[in-house]
Amino acid sequence: AQKVTQAQTEISVVEKEDVTLDCVYETRDTTYYLFWYKQPPSGELVFLIRRNSFDEQNEISGRYSWNFQKSTSSFNFTITASQVVDSAVYFCALIPGGSGYSTLTFGKGTMLLVSP
Amino acid sequence: ETGVTQSPTHLIKTRGQQVTLRCSSQSGHNTVSWYQQALGQGPQFIFQYYREEENGRGNFPPRFSGLQFPNYSSELNVNALELDDSALYLCASTTRTDHTDTQYFGPGTRLTVL
After folding, report:
1. Residue B41: closest C-alpha in chain A
2. 3-state secondary structure of A70
3. At A47, which helix (H) or strand (E)?
4. Residue A52 — pLDDT band, cuts 50, 70, 90?
5. What are the backbone angles phi and psi of residue A34, rounded to the nearest 5°?
6. Cis (ω within 30 of 0) for the bond into B70?
7. Mutate which of A21, A36, A44, A95 to test chain B, going by most B C-beta atoms within 10 A?
8. How far apart are the first and last CA of chain B?
9. Inter-chain touch B108–A103, beta carbons under 8 Å
10. Do B31 and A105 lie within an 8 Å CB cutoff?
């Protein structure tokens, strides 16, 4: 079975601060896929990034960056110079590579509040 | 824009009733998944359909059922509604790039059971 843990329930920062959202996962599959989604108050889950288990390169996209470390089973997400529009719930999720169909296992989410 | 739409946006039902939620995804997206998201929780997988056949199911009772149609639309049906069925129901359409599936979600239907 798979498990995704987001230990931070809620984080509050002031605009322009950097913030890191933690994600730790468990899976017995050697091939798997990790995701981050953003859920603003409107409710729609917005896809941010996908990372394959065989690709440990970190990635930067604008103010967003992701740090994938297989040794610690972590896939952390950093927002640099946070903005009020970044306020949302962020979910880390995993798809195991061994299943015959792709289903996302989500963490419980981290609510990020960015104040002006 | 993900190209995934859901209807209705909100719905209020009473315990014991039946409900049908609808989802429409982009042309060519053969796989649709449904998730239930209770308040303050992450989404939980209900089931997945591929080419109109159920392709996988999470830990949900049989009163949760679905259909997928040739026009890339799908339905989630819930019979004998219970108070705990109150949640946001999310539909996701799957695209495959670089041999990996990515699920794109619709805006969801918020169901309240009284």
Report:
1. A108
2. helix
3. strand A46-52
4. confident
5. -115, 145
6. no
7. A44
8. 33
9. no
10. no
Q: Is A91 on the interface with B (CB under 8 A)?
A: yes
Q: Is B106 near chain A, with CB under 8 Å?
A: yes
* Nearest by CB: A50 against B40, B92, B102: B102
- CA–centroid distance for B50 within its chain: 13
Q: Name the token pair of B19.
A: 């409900």
H or E stretch at B5: strand B5-7
Neighbours of A94 (CB within 10 A): 24
> pLDDT digit string (tens) for B3-58?
899 999 999 999 999 999 999 987 777 889 999 999 999 999 999 998 889 988 99
d(CA B27, CA B38): 29
